[in-house]
Specification:
By secondary structure, the protein is an alpha+beta fold. The protein contains 4 helices and 9 strands, in the order βαβββββββαααβ.
């Protein structure tokens, strides 16, 4: 799958690396007690769901947020064992297929409704990352990218983007418009300004698993 970057035209002259740094500074951290709890876009009658095709979280200290997406239905899965975990590496981790990551501000949705971002949002598509059930945390690119973002660290995502952009002799030092010119599937789009609605968040807090 080829990389695709969707962004608002006003971001076209911005370097991708600069955008990621700005998002990190705005999101701050998902550290336990000072960060964000998140959840899946699916709903559950009893316990919070641990599977879906979107996982999202928003900072408690700002309106910055992120959405991780799979192109496969229920393609993202969270392993949580309150008791009997073999090791910390085999508990509190995400596995499945991670295809797209959206970054921006003002998260809404959840509980059976797709998550959306209303402002300053970009979407990095075609990441094509996967990890099988039982992968654990270590060496798991799906977990590393999502958990990194939850901690306000975009480095794992940026490393993935650089690997994909290298096929076009580009890197995240390029602007969004430069990527669009080199990769036909990447282009500015009229991303909608959405009316902000409260995003209900579950009590799953990956931060305490740090």
């Amino acid at each position: 799958m080829s990389i695709s970057v969707s962004y608002k035209p006003e971001l076209g002259a911005s370097k991708i690396s600069d955008y990621l740094q700005g998002w990190e500074a705005g999101f701050v951290t998902a550290g336990h007690g000072a960060g964000a709890t998140g959840g899946f876009n699916t709903s559950s009658m009893i316990l919070p769901p641990t599977t879906g095709d979107q996982y999202a979280t928003a900072s408690k200290t700002s309106n910055y947020a992120m959405i991780a997406e799979s192109d496969t239905a229920d393609g993202l899965n969270y392993v949580f064992k309150m008791f009997g975990a073999v090791s910390p590496n085999m508990n509190h981790y995400l596995w499945g297929e991670l295809d797209n990551v959206q970054l921006g501000q003002k998260l809404s949705g959840g509980k059976g409704v797709d998550f959306t971002l209303a402002e300053n949002n970009v979407s990095f598509n075609g990441l094509n990352l996967s990890a099988p059930e039982g992968a654990g945390r270590e060496g798991n690119p799906v977990h590393e990218v999502v958990y990194g973002l939850m901690k306000g660290n975009a480095d794992p995502l940026e490393a993935t983007l650089n690997k994909l952009l290298a096929e076009y002799n580009l890197s995240t030092a390029a602007t969004f418009d430069q990527v669009a010119a080199a990769a036909p599937v990447a282009a500015p789009v009229a991303m909608p300004n959405l009316v902000l609605a409260s995003a209900d968040q579950s009590w799953w807090d990956w931060a305490f698993a740090a």
